[in-house]
Amino acid sequence: MEGRKGGYFEAALSDFMFDVAAGGAIRHLTDRGHSVEQIMKELDYPVARSKVEKAVYRYLVESGILMSGLPVEDEKIRIHHLQAGKENDRNSFKTALVKHIETYGEKNSYMECPFGLWMKDDEKKLNQVMEVLTSREKEYILGINWEHNMMYHRLNGRMREIGMKLGSDTDIEWKFFFLSHELL
Question: What is the CB neighbour count within 10 angstroms for residue 147?
């Protein structure tokens, strides 16, 4: 039992030291839209990729940038959506997306992201989607540990850029969601 407590303490101390040494920088660079690869290059000392990926994922989830589901159970939140893809005009989609983000605000604007599902079950579709992205955009998507099959990513600067490109340059139907708080 004593050895077990020591292991927990050592793990907690290691996590604390990592957070002090690199956690703030990782969170800051994540907020700026950097990919895991870019973050690793910016850090002052070498850190295992798996640690950076885990820290980025944890921060994205804790800050509400990445969600495993939309807050549909909250009766005070109304969800509006916009769809891009097969039958939509590409330019009108871009205009509508910008207008929705302006109306609802970045913090209430999300894109449905099936990347985790495709990474597990449909590599062909994932590769097809990745073809339209720049290497920097691909790095961002592939650097996230999509733990759930379907996730929702806030339309911050980087994801807005990616969403615009995917919504206008692929024939896949993409869904965008905008949350509004209803006044009672």
Answer: 11
